[in-house]
Amino acid sequence: MGIEDFGGGQNPQTDVLVVTTNDVPGYRVEKVIGEVFGLTVRSRHLGSQIGAGLKSMIGGELKGLTKTLVETRNQAMERLVEQARSRGANGVLMFRFDVSEAADVGTEVCAYGTAVVIAPR
């Protein structure tokens, strides 16, 4: 079952539907595989830290940090999907992100959810 069977999705190149909800309307959960996650830790770039420090004094978006966080979240989500697929899932329910500091040297981003096999009703 490919993503086209779900009627779209956030990434047409994946065969795993990832949703933040507990279920998918029009589909039933045939099997719960269990928790899956994707984890990445990114160190801070000295230049972006200096730029962010200066920008924080005058206000405005920290574009370099925003770009880095988006890339980091995408990588964590890709790893989550890879893990779900490798365990035989075609869906991830209750998808969430957790972001925390990693020993004051970087940012840890964990994407997690429940891997399932879903099928149309």
From TrEMBL:
Entry-linked SUPFAM superfamilies: YbjQ-like
Gene3D superfamilies: Hypothetical protein apc22750. Chain B
Signal peptide (from-to): none
Top-level taxon in the UniProt lineage: Bacteria
Pfam family, one: YbjQ_1
Family to which this protein belongs: Belongs to the UPF0145 family.
Protein name according to UniProt: UPF0145 protein ACEG43_34185
Organism annotation: Streptomyces aureus
Lineage, top ranks: Bacteria, Bacillati, Actinomycetota, Actinomycetes, Kitasatosporales
